[in-house]
Automatic annotation (TrEMBL):
Its cofactor is FAD. GO terms for molecular function: monooxygenase activity. NCBIfam families: PRK08132.1 (NF006002). Coiled coil: none annotated. It holds the Pfam family FAD_binding_3. This is FAD-dependent monooxygenase. It comes from Actinomadura luzonensis.
């Protein structure tokens, strides 16, 4: 049966809820289906949310995630009983670099944001078992019912293999043998509430790792790497916790075990169906690149689906979703794969090298996980390259990329708000002092019917310092996409050159 929805989102996890909320911001009616009878209320699960993900959630009315989460200040790394290193995140822009907050609480906040959107309907207890499509739309089967919409976005998680198979997709990769035991523990641990601790080969977990993260309300998330055949018993869990916290009182709130997976679907777009989050890619959690890559999937998919459905771009724009987010997933797999080879070496050579690094205190070579970062769409067909603004490559650990075409726009405080807040209502053209904004408005209004704003950099903060902070020249025009990525930086800019960049960013030919 046909629905009123323009997009069916399969999966009401954080990625699916984010996508539905973003689609609603663009005026797109969305139906969210989830196989579970109701929301699960326990367990930290994915806890670490990166700044640019917090930015997206703030845009959809879920800013409480950034407000309630804990931002630890120091990351300490130990080898056995010796501290190898400690370092601190630098705060860049108005939002914290990340927060720790349980996935359960994150989902509650996102549920509230979705409930406030009249264009989103969520149906629990609707397991999607099949998906088919034709030239005019997508059909999803839920039991005896078939629901239909023009497009579908699959955010159904790692266990969505039947849906991937229905689309003819492979989900190649591997699963690591070792398990991880995770526990949410409430305890009074003075000095630990603002530190993340990573232990290599401690005496109380010999040959393996332990990771401890602070969370709100005096709780801590503890991850132990454990043997493949280990079955945790209550007494063993208690013993492991005592080895870390001593004789202090504590409360075990939740525990579970899991294995790491390293997998990627061969396509993230199949016709009118897009895949996002764990449904499309699985990575080891060190570096928090799971949910922190799923949310950018959702944002990338949402603005492109909305532009196509609103008639602002042709359907070819959707292929850039696969191009951009598949490349981002491959980057995450490369980074997390290197981390897992260090954490769980599989060959004699890898084990010897790791031991030499740790015992030698070669801090620069210790890999406990490179933290999640926004991907750079440098090679995207939507990006207009500029030789004078080359991409500098993967930045040093903990650093941001200098602005360049394809890189996300740095955030900055503005009178009454933030720079990124004005980016998510459409395309944004930022002009240097030497550019006449009235000429650009006239020409660009004839190029596209998509939402597009033209703003002078000097007028945005009233001081002229924003251009200096961004490194923007007085005769430059910067074209910013709806997901805050820089589509073009054009020196000696004229309306025609910017119009060509807009056309390209909408999926048109680079020459149009």
């Amino acid at each position: 049966m046909n629905t009123e929805a323009q997009v069916i989102v399969v999966g009401a996890g954080p990625v699916g809820l984010t996508a539905a909320s973003l689609l609603a911001r663009w005026g797109i009616q969305t139906l969210v289906l989830d196989r579970r009878p109701e929301r699960e209320g326990a367990g930290s699960r994915s806890i670490c949310q990166q700044r640019d993900v917090l930015d997206v959630w703030t845009a959809v009315g879920a800013g409480r995630i950034a407000e309630e989460g804990v931002t630890w200040t120091t990351a300490r790394t130990y080898y056995r009983d010796r501290e190898l290193s400690s370092w601190t995140f630098e705060r860049e822009g108005p939002l914290p670099p990340f927060v720790n907050l349980s996935q359960s609480r994150t989902e509650q906040i996102l549920d509230a944001a979705v409930a406030a959107q009249p264009l989103v309907e969520v149906r629990w207890g609707h397991e999607v078992t099949d998906v088919t499509q034709d030239a005019s739309g997508v059909s999803v089967r839920c039991g005896q019912r078939v629901l239909r919409a023009p497009y579908a976005l699959l955010c159904a998680g790692a266990r969505a293999q039947p849906l991937r198979q229905a689309l003819g997709l492979r989900f190649g990769g591997e699963t690591f043998d070792d398990q991880f035991l995770i526990c949410d523990v409430k305890a009074d641990l003075p000095g630990w509430e603002d530190e993340r601790r990573f232990y290599f080969d401690p005496s109380w977990n010999p040959g393996r790792q332990v990771l401890i993260h602070p969370c709100p309300g005096g709780t801590f998330r503890i991850d132990w790497q454990i043997a493949p055949d280990f079955i945790p018993a209550e007494a063993d869990i208690a013993r492991r916790i005592r080895q870390i916290i001593g004789d202090r009182p504590y409360e075990l709130l939740w525990h579970s075990t899991y294995r790491f997976h390293h997998r990627l679907a061969d396509r993230m777009r199949v016709g009118r169906v897009l895949l996002a989050g764990d449904c499309a890619h699985l990575v080891a959690p060190f570096g928090a690149r799971g949910l922190n890559s799923g949310v950018p999937d959702a944002e990338n998919a949402a603005w492109k689906l909305a532009f196509v459905l609103n008639g602002w771009a042709g359907p070819d724009l959707l292929e850039s979703y696969h191009v951009e987010r598949h490349a981002a997933a491959r980057e995450n797999l490369e980074v997390t794969g290197a981390t897992m080879r260090f954490l769980a070496p599989r060959s004699v050579e890898e084990r010897m090298w790791r031991r030499a690094v740790l015992e030698g205190g070669r801090v620069a070579e210790v890999d406990s996980g490179r933290f999640a970062e926004p991907f750079w769409y440098v090679d995207s067909p939507l990006t207009t390259p500029e030789p004078s603004r080359p991409f500098a490559g993967r930045p040093p650990k903990g650093a941001s990329c200098p602005p360049a075409p394809g890189v996300i726009l740095p955030d900055a405080a503005l009178p009454g708000g933030r720079l990124r807040e004005v980016c998510r209502d459409g395309f944004l053209v930022l002009l240097g002092d030497m550019c006449d904004s009235s000429l650009f408005v006239q020409v660009l209004g004839k190029v596209t019917t998509a939402p597009l704003a033209v703003r002078g950099l000097a007028e945005m903060d009233g001081t002229g310092s924003l251009a200096e902070r961004l490194g923007a020249g007085p005769d430059e025009a910067w074209l910013i996409r709806p997901d805050a990525h820089i589509a073009a930086i054009i020196p000696h800019a004229g309306p025609e050159s910017v119009a060509a960049a807009v056309s390209r960013a909408l999926g048109g030919s680079p020459d149009t």
